[in-house]
Amino acid sequence: MVNPGRRCIIRKKIQESGGCNFFEFIDPPMCERSRHIISGLLRRVTWLENESEKRSDGNGKRGLLLLLLSLLYVT
Fold first, then answer.
1. Full residue range of the structural domain in which residue 26 is found
2. In the chain, N or C: fewer CB atoms in 10 Å?
């Protein structure tokens, strides 16, 4: 298991017997500012993903329309 610099709890009996690969991490609570920033970033990512989906859908329809118009123009 990789420990990314976080503190963790391992029960002493389990540690002595070879372990069970279960760790409980101890993280201090985040401050209000951190929670506000992270929630704002998550909202922005969600919005950008939705915009990307809308644009990709529109590009497919636009491409099909251009193909049909070019076929009509050639004939």
1. 7-74
2. C
- For tokens 């193909």, name the residue: 67
The set of residues, in sequence order, having a beta carbon less than 8 Å from that of 27 and lying 6+ positions away, is 6, 7
Bridge partners (DSSP) of residue 22 are none
Predicted confidence pLDDT, tens digits, the chain (75 residues):
555 666 666 655 555 555 565 666 677 788 999 999 999 999 999 998 888 877 776 666 777 777 777 777 765
Residue 38 domain flag: yes
Q: pTM of whole model > 0.90?
A: no
Residue 17 is given by DSSP the state T
What's the structural domain count of the chain? 1
Please tell me the distance from the alpha carbon of residue 56 to that of residue 21, in angstroms, as a whole number. 44
Asked whether residue 2 is domain-assigned, the answer is no
